[in-house]
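Is this the right way to post structure tokens for a design question? Let me know if I should format differently. Anyway, here goes:
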């Protein structure tokens, strides 16, 4: 979007236009940050606002901050140079939100949202108001709507780890199969090993580890399944990860 100052001189911007762009960056970054804050993620409201504002300011600086040197014969002005540095810098910031717990990686979405917020700030600083607002709406839809769909249709199909300890596993296998069939739990793979009984050191237990896929509403179904398994005769201990 071309402002009046830009139409007059593309290397000049007045204070009103600067304030409009910074305020818009604050608003758009705040909208995405609010969604992240409500979801209790590491990068929340203030983080996203600061990233968007900083990116916008650096874009303004990159385009208009060196306008006094445009007419110099030995000076080349590259408005995209600081923008490239912002994207690189935000990459390091986003890496700080990614955690590897040994079994899963978390924080990738938060890191990606920070990267997009920086891009929105750069776009606002360059005067791409419509693109910035459109991307903000798309990001909010992705973070909120697609998150609902992912939880319902994708995460529900991920494997769950269930551990069962029994004194005589062979006597409870039929009961286990009956429970899993009744609750429509699919067993993908399993393995077993002998472990010591925490209460009776001289007695050996068999530990059965099952990788299963739960039906819809995984958390609710999982608690019911664990409760039912715990009540089976011969099973000493049940856990899930």
């Amino acid at each position: 979007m071309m402002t009046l100052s830009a139409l007059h001189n593309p290397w000049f911007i007045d204070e009103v236009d600067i304030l409009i762009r910074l305020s818009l960056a604050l608003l758009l970054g705040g909208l995405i940050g609010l969604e992240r804050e409500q979801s209790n993620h590491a990068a929340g409201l203030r983080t996203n606002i600061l990233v968007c504002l900083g990116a916008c300011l650096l874009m303004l600086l990159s385009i208009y901050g060196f306008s006094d040197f445009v007419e110099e014969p030995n000076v080349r002005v590259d408005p995209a140079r600081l923008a490239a540095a912002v994207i690189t810098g935000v990459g390091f910031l986003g890496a700080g939100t990614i955690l590897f717990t040994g079994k899963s990686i978390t924080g990738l979405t938060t890191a990606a949202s920070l990267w997009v917020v920086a891009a929105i700030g750069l776009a606002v600083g360059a005067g791409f108001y419509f693109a910035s607002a459109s991307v903000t709406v798309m990001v909010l839809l992705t973070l909120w709507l697609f998150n609902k769909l992912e939880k319902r249709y994708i995460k529900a199909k991920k494997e769950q780890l269930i551990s069962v300890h029994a004194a005589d596993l062979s006597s409870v296998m039929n009961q286990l199969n009956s429970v899993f069939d009744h609750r429509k739990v699919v067993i993908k793979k399993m393995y077993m090993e002998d472990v010591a009984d925490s209460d009776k050191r001289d007695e050996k237990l068999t530990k059965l580890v099952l990788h299963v896929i739960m039906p819809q509403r995984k958390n609710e179904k999982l608690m019911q399944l664990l409760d039912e398994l715990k009540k089976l005769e011969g099973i000493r201990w049940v856990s899930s990860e």
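Format looks fine. Someone answered above. Worth noting: The chain has a mean pLDDT of 79. The helical segments are 4-8, 15-38, 45-64, 81-95, 108-126, 129-154, 169-182, 218-230.
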